[in-house]
Design a protein that fits this description.
The complex is a heterodimer of chains A (321) and B (317).
Chain A (H helix, E strand, L loop, with lengths): L2 H18 L3 E2 H8 L3 H12 L13 E5 L2 E6 L11 H15 L7 H15 L9 E4 L7 H10 L1 E9 L4 E15 L2 E8 L4 E6 L3 E10 L23 E7 L5 H5 L4 E4 L5 E7 L2 H11 L3 E5 L1 H15 L3 H5 L2
Antiparallel strand pairs in A: 1-3, 2-3, 5-6, 5-9, 6-7, 7-8, 10-12, 10-13, 11-12
Helix pairs in contact in A: 2-3, 4-5, 8-9
Chain B lengths: L2 H16 L6 H7 L8 H17 L5 E3 L10 E3 L2 H4 L8 H11 L7 H14 L11 E3 L8 H10 L3 E5 L8 E13 L2 E8 L4 E6 L3 E7 L14 H9 L5 E8 L4 H6 L2 E4 L4 E8 L2 H10 L4 E5 L1 H15 L2
Antiparallel strand pairs in B: 1-2, 4-5, 4-8, 5-6, 6-7, 9-11, 9-12, 10-11
Helix pairs in contact in B: 5-6, 10-11
The chains are: A alpha+beta (321), B alpha+beta (317).
């Protein structure tokens, strides 16, 4: 959308907005539209010289200012906002449908009602919504207990599977909120075991129990910013460099990489940061002939040692060849 | 960003909304301030561009003549009932649901679209709260191919793109009639009809290389009525078990295999034996090898052979 289009779009929404809310503080109007007060005043000035043809008395857009508030007294006919565009209708309807089908969602009824009303207001614009599907996976097993804990403000006891160590650990946590990111459901909680804010993937929770203890996350327990995705590189991560054959190229899609370079055989050389080398070892073991460890050296030797140990369980088959 | 242009466009919208009769370009020129060009030619060009801007915003411009009897010059107007957002009254919990849904999209172009949708709803008097709820769904659309595929699906228009299929070294050009897009496990997929292969195909958008180019007219694709988009993606993304493998696992290890096991029994010395379905020995070998010395495939022979050759290759590196 061009700059003029964006501004025009805002002005066409501003007039009905003001009409619906007489006597609003100018600062609040500016905040609502995400612009500075100075910018808003300029736009009100612009509106003031627009109106019905002839620009006679009563034709022009007019406001009244009292104290720091503004009220529109003449809209020149712009009383209702513009209808939703196809993209706007589509984006909203698809989002509501996805929300409605999230397993474990509690207020499903409100979402269904809102969806019906928005679909009706969008009319034909929402027709393409049939061709978009968003599968949000909630967690029916664990989520109800987690939500009960959030509602009651109580701690949870979790048996949680940690993939890099292939083990289940027990811990008490103070629940903070539930997030669905990239199609999976997570509990964000203050973990008493590690003394930090952690994201627990609900499908890795083997067991969960509601405790009587009240949940009291300490002041330093702040929600994680997941707007950039889940993985947050931290200073104590190890840089791993792998040469991937084409069949293993999916790794670059599944894990955030610091760098990805195409190689001459159609494969990729990737550098990625890992919090735990055991995880990287497991990944390399999985990829087998489709990967070569370029660094660090201890990862390569770990993999060789583990593979040799595993091979010893296969007796003659492991030795011959 | 020109204030004069915005003024002119706003005056144009107001003028066309207010009139019941169709207005000719000459009438518009005299009624709307800002069209004081020197030449007729310059005015017409400016008016054409202005019409495009209005259409881009989704403002419905109606053309027609006022009298059927005479050959009147065609004119323009905006019908209020086509322009205005219909009445919509939301209860507080419905508005909260809309607010939550509007925050679903994490990236352009959809995040912008819900943002401006919400602005219009608020302009209609609805107050959707911005406060975060306890359950906050999020969907990203970070694949570069997403906007092109979204538009192709929206406009029902065929597309062409280079695609790197699993295990193929070089991307190949594919031509597709798009039926729908699906977000599944955090990845976007395109479901459609591959016109070269004459069959339904599912494409993972992260494997598209380069641009998604239009390859036909909008409206020329008609998806079949019975396509289950999500099922198509799930079939493509998941394995369908056909054989059963017996795997020995150290106690406490192999958790994800255990989850899928159809049976488990204790063996000796702190080991268990599980039965797990698989369709492709290589993919089973992928997963078992990941557990290193904590897992041993007992049967069938082709699954054992796949794991052994995998492990031998790793020892030799």
């Amino acid at each position: 959308m061009s700059g003029t289009s964006a501004q025009l779009s805002r002005l066409l929404a501003l007039l009905p907005w003001l009409l619906a809310r007489p006597g609003t503080r100018i600062a609040d109007v500016a905040a609502e539209f995400g612009i500075s007060e100075a910018r808003l005043r300029k736009e009100l000035d612009l509106l003031w010289v627009c109106g019905l043809p002839g620009h006679g008395p009563g034709d022009l857009i007019d406001f009244s200012f009292e104290g720091d508030t503004v009220t529109v007294i003449e809209t020149a006919g712009v009383e209702r906002p513009l209808r939703l565009t196809v993209d706007e209708a589509l984006a909203l309807v698809v989002a509501l449908r996805a929300l409605a089908e999230t397993p474990g969602l509690r207020d499903r009824d409100a979402v269904d009602r809102a969806l019906a009303k928005v679909e009706q207001a969008a009319g034909e614009s929402a027709a393409p919504a049939e061709r978009v599907e968003v599968a949000l996976e909630g967690e029916e097993r664990v989520l109800p207990v987690v939500q009960a804990a959030l509602d009651a403000g109580r701690q949870l006891h979790l048996s949680y599977y940690v993939p890099s160590r292939d083990e289940t650990t027990d811990r008490d946590v103070d629940p903070m909120r539930v997030l669905v990111v990239e199609g999976r459901t997570y509990l964000e909680a203050w973990c008493r075991r590690t003394e930090g804010v952690r994201l627990f993937r609900l499908d890795r929770v083997e067991d969960v129990a509601l405790l009587d203890t009240p949940a009291q996350p300490p002041p330093e327990a702040r929600p994680r910013d997941v707007s950039q995705g889940l993985f947050v590189p931290s200073p104590d991560t190890t840089l791993v460099t792998l040469a991937l054959r084409p069949a293993a190229a999916w790794v670059a899609e599944y894990h955030p990489c610091e760098s990805v370079q195409e190689s001459s055989d159609g494969g990729l050389t990737v550098r990625l940061r890992v919090a735990d080398l055991a995880w990287a070892r497991r990944l390399v073991l999985r990829l087998g002939p489709h990967v070569r460890v370029l660094g660090p050296p201890e990862l390569a030797s770990d993999v060789r040692a583990e593979a040799a140990l595993a091979l010893s369980a296969y007796g003659d088959e492991g030795r011959s060849g | 960003m020109s204030a004069k242009k915005t003024e002119r466009l706003l005056n144009l919208v107001i003028c066309l909304l207010a009139t019941r009769r169709f207005l000719t370009v000459q009438q518009i020129r005299s009624a709307v301030p800002g069209y004081d060009q020197d030449t007729e030619e310059a005015f017409r060009r400016m008016f054409e561009r202005d019409k495009d801007e209005l259409r881009e915003l989704g403002i419905p411009l109606e053309t027609g003549t006022n009298s059927a009897a005479h050959e009147d010059e065609p004119g323009y107007r905006i019908a209020r009932r086509d322009y205005e957002l219909p009445d919509i009254a939301l209860e507080a919990d419905e508005a909260a649901a809309v607010g939550l849904a509007a925050r679903l999209w994490q990236s352009a172009p959809l995040a912008g679209a819900t943002g401006s949708a919400l602005m219009k709803l608020r302009a209609a008097g609805i107050d959707a709260p911005a406060a975060p709820a306890l359950l906050e769904p999020r969907v990203a659309a970070s694949e570069p191919a997403f906007p092109g595929c979204w538009e192709a699906v929206r406009d029902r228009r065929p597309v062409r793109f280079a695609y790197r299929a699993t295990g193929r070294p070089a991307p190949e050009l594919r031509t597709v009639e798009p039926w729908g897009v699906v977000s599944w496990r955090g990845r976007w997929y395109l479901v459609g009809f591959d016109t070269d292969r004459q069959a339904q195909r599912v494409f993972r958008l992260s494997r598209v290389v380069g641009e998604v180019e239009p390859a036909g007219e909008p409206g020329s694709v008609t998806p079949p009525g019975d396509v289950d988009l999500r099922a198509a993606v799930e079939r493509m993304a998941a394995d369908e078990p056909r054989h059963v493998a017996t795997v020995r696992l150290r106690a406490g290890a192999g958790w994800e295999l255990r989850r899928e096991a159809t049976s488990t029994r204790a063996d000796d010395d702190g080991w268990d034996v599980v039965e797990v379905g698989f369709s492709d020995p290589e993919r089973l070998a992928d997963r078992v090898a990941g557990y290193g010395a904590d897992a041993v495939v007992l049967s069938p022979p082709e699954a054992r052979a796949a794991v052994v050759s995998r492990l031998r290759a790793l020892v030799a590196t």
